[in-house]
């Protein structure tokens, strides 16, 4: 049979997409109020490096964020620190939130806070526990848990 394009109203297709949850987590956050000294640390608990190219970092407005550049990786059992200067929206102090989305648009992790900590927010135990106020900032290394 034949048909003309004027006879085709719409074409619908489906494609299955499997997205695996990433083990990479926000590990420590140093909000720095309105100054530009803050940072976010990610931790990879796996035995293989993870490619974070195209991951998106957002604040409360999840439709406005910064993409990690192509070639951004986090080593096995390692850390990646992203400085606030690389984040379009910054890391405000009080009453703020931070979200991380994979290159597929799936939220990987998030943290919200009502008041800026005296030090940093860090996961205790490392990479898996709840966020607590750390005893000292530990940029790029294991958190100092109370």
Helix amount: under 10%
The side-by-side strand order for the widest beta sheet comes to 7-2-1-10-11
Count of individual beta strands = 11
N-to-C span: 74 Å
Quaternary organization? single chain
Low-confidence stretches: none
Tell me the series of helices and strands, N- to C-terminal.
EEEEEEEEEEE
Q: Helix segment count?
A: 0
Mean pLDDT: 87
Query: How many whole angstroms does the radius of gyration measure?
Result: 19 Å
Spatial shape: globular
Q: What share of the residues does DSSP label as strand, in percent?
A: 25-35%
**Major beta sheet, specifics?**
5 strands, antiparallel
Structural class: mainly beta
Short description:
Helix content is 0%, strand content 32%. The chain has no helices and eleven strands.
Topology:
Blueprint: E1 25-30, E2 39-43, E3 50-51, E4 56-58, E5 65-67, E6 73-74, E7 79-83, E8 96-101, E9 107-113, E10 121-124, E11 130-133
Antiparallel strand pairs: 1-2, 1-10, 2-7, 3-6, 4-5, 4-8, 8-9, 10-11
